[in-house]
Structure formats: structure tokens, C-alpha cells
Design brief:
This protein is mainly α and about 270 residues long. The protein has one domain. It has 12 helices and no strands. α7 runs antiparallel to α12. The radius of gyration is 19 Å and the shape is globular. The two termini are about 25 Å apart.
Length: about 270
């Protein structure tokens, strides 16, 4: 992998991880045409971790409160001998856990299938077009008004199922979770916030599983990796801010058009 390829992949990962266009689909397409077929697992993991760091930094206040809520629940279990979720962050923490369970199950059950799909550009092209349909549907849910803390466990599980779809390369994680959140009634601002917070366990969990597949020879830390991670981090911050503005304005249709065009081109070429 050359330095230029590393920079391009880092930029694309940073932009596509949060914009609803599928980072995995874009990376698979680029790696195919760059001729990168081996030795890139560790690099991909580190790119995903760098974008995960973006969410942790930008949503550090929420994360701090969620950690405090977690320990409050644990303390109440030992002191009062009962499990209760009283504050809004305790409820949000429970919702994130519930939403992460379907995603984890889908990932574990269909891991082999999704890994094979990563090298099948035709499947990725179809998945990109499906992402466009999801985003198009989201514009039909313009007046939702439920806040995250008001959402019940069933709504959380539904969002988790939508996020699980994104394990398929070409299906956008941010796009599917935002659409799922809007579908169950969350307002647009909270749908975006929930999507970003939900990405933390998804990214960290996926990275941890992939780490177990690494051989010692796969771990290569060089200038290409460092530059790629920096590019991914910088453009990740930019893409989050852009997406927040577009979601509030109900402009996800722009991304629909983009992934429809890209998916069609990929199918024609393959």
C-alpha cells in the first residue's frame, strides 16, 4: 500500500463512516481497484478505531454521563438489591445496550457470509442501492418528536436490527440506524445523536473481534498507517458536523442520489 493510497483510504473512511454512504462499501471498492487484497486487516481496524475516537471526543459529555449512570445502576443493585433505571442517562444507557444486542447477534451469526460479500462488488453495488432506498424512506418521517429517553426497549431493539443490517458491506451503519430511529418515532436531532452514540460499542466490538483474527505479522505500524489514521480522524470530525446539519434540514435525499449512482456504476462495471 502506497502513502497516497493510505491517505485516500483514510479520508474515505473518515467521511463515509458517519455520512450515510457506507464506509465498508467504499473501502472494499477502493481496495479492489487499488489491488490491495492482503495484509490490510490491521490497517482497516485502526482506521475504524480512529473514527471511533472522533465520536468519543465529540460526545465526551454524553459518554461521561453514561459511565456515571452505569456505576449508579451497579451501586443500586448492591445497595438496594434492585435493578432500576431512573435518570435519563440511565435509560439511555439501557437503550444503547438493548440496541447493541441484535447487532451483535447478526454479526456473529452471519459473519462468514458478510466477509465473503466484502470481496463481491456486485453484492456491494446492490447494497449501496438498498442504502439509497433507506435514506429515501427517511424523508417520509419528518415530524417525529420522541426523545431518546422516552423511547422504550422495543424501539431500541428495532434500531439495533437496522444497525445489524449495516454489517453487510454497502449498507450504511449511520444511515440505517438513523432511518431505524426515525421509523420508531425519534426526532431528527436525537436520531442522529443516538446513531453516533450507538456507533461506539459497534465500532469497538467489531474491532475487538477482528483483533483476534490477526497474526503477529499482520501488525505493521508505519507512516502509512499513522497518516491514514490522522486523515480518517480529521475528515471524521468534518463529516459528523455536516451530517448533523443535513439531518436537521431533512436533506438525506442527497446521499440517496449519490449511493444510487455509485451502486449502479459498480454493478455495470462488474
Amino acid at each position: 500500500m502506497t502513502l497516497i493510497q493510505s491517505v485516500i483510504l483514510g479520508i474515505v473512511q473518515g467521511i463515509a463512516e458517519f455520512l450515510p454512504v457506507s464506509s465498508s462499501g467504499h473501502l472494499a471498492i477502493l481496495q479492489h481497484y487499488f489491488g490491495i487484497s492482503e495484509g490490510n486487516l490491521f490497517y482497516s481496524i485502526m482506521l475504524h478505531l480512529s473514527t471511533g475516537l472522533v465520536v468519543i471526543i465529540l460526545f465526551r459529555k454524553d459518554i461521561k454521563e453514561l459511565i456515571k449512570a452505569f456505576f449508579n445502576v451497579i451501586i443500586n443493585i448492591f445497595r438496594k438489591r434492585k435493578l432500576s433505571f431512573n435518570s435519563k442517562y440511565e435509560k439511555l444507557m439501557l437503550l444503547i445496550i438493548i440496541s447493541s444486542i441484535p447487532t451483535a447477534l447478526i454479526g456473529l451469526l452471519f459473519e462468514d457470509y458478510f466477509e465473503q460479500a466484502y470481496t463481491n462488488l456486485s453484492s456491494i453495488g446492490i447494497a449501496l442501492i438498498a442504502t439509497g432506498m433507506l435514506l429515501f424512506i427517511s424523508d417520509k418521517f419528518l415530524n417525529q418528536n420522541i426523545k431518546i429517553e422516552q423511547a422504550g426497549l422495543f424501539r431500541g431493539a428495532v434500531v439495533g436490527l437496522f444497525q445489524g443490517l449495516a454489517i453487510m458491506p454497502g449498507i450504511s451503519r449511520s444511515g440505517s440506524t438513523i432511518v431505524g430511529s426515525l421509523l420508531v418515532g425519534l426526532n431528527r436531532k436525537d436520531a442522529a445523536r443516538f446513531s453516533f452514540l450507538l456507533s461506539i460499542p459497534a465500532i469497538l466490538g467489531a474491532a475487538l473481534l477482528e483483533m483476534f483474527k490477526l497474526n503477529t505479522s499482520d501488525v505493521v505500524i508505519d507512516i502509512n498507517l499513522i497518516i491514514g489514521m490522522i486523515a480518517s480522524f480529521i475528515f471524521g470530525i468534518m463529516s459528523i458536523k455536516i451530517l448533523l446539519r443535513l439531518i436537521e434540514k431533512g436533506k438525506l435525499i442527497y446521499f440517496s442520489i449519490y449511493v444510487w449512482i455509485l451502486g449502479t456504476i459498480v454493478l455495470i462495471l462488474n
